[in-house]
Amino acid sequence: LKPSFENIKKNCFQSIDSNDINFDKIHTAVSFSFGLAENAISYLADSKLDYGDNIERLTLSHIRLNSYDSYSFFNPFNMIIDTVIRDYAELYKFELIDIYDLDKIISNLNINVKEASLLMARILYPTRIFDLLEDLATENIQSDYSKEIYKAINKYKIQLSKIKEYYNIIINMMNIRPIDWINF
Predict the structure, then answer these.
(1) DSSP codes of every residue in the chain
(2) pTM exceeds 0.90 for this model
(3) What is the mean pLDDT of residues 12-32?
């Protein structure tokens, strides 16, 4: 069973060692990640209201695509039927493609406003930190969790930059729902 969002949040904050030298940075970044996750979920819910919940172009995608290794690509347990943009969101978030590649992909796929909004919600969601937090909540992390989380949170400024990059490109291309805080 996957833990609920609230259980992850509760377990995470209880598990952070206040004596850890990186406590403040970890706490800030984890709080930031929870905020991003809530924004992503709200944006997805708003997109559902705007465009409906039917996904027209389904394809075989990866649950996680955070590397170019053959195990990630060909593992049948890493596959799911989902929207055509899922893999591209993960590749972009994990810095395996850049904004120029993503822009070309968007053009080649001829995505519509609904798909652009789904892509925005996926890019907003802090996958990297939540995978670690889920492992922490389910006690799948055997090593020192703070080091793993600290590695992930060092990327949150990059993640915010990537969110802004995509948002600024797509908001000019399509009339997606605006997100006021992004350009502050």
Answers:
(1) -PPPHHHHHHHHHHHS-TTSTTHHHHHHHHHHHHHHHHHHHHHHHHHHHHH-S--SSEEEEES---S--HHHHH-GGGEEEEETTHHHHHHHHTTSS-HHHHHHHHHHHT--HHHHHHHHHHHHS-HHHHHHHHHHHTT---S-HHHHHHHHHTTHHHHHHHHHHHHHHHHHHS-PPP-GGGG-
(2) no
(3) 72
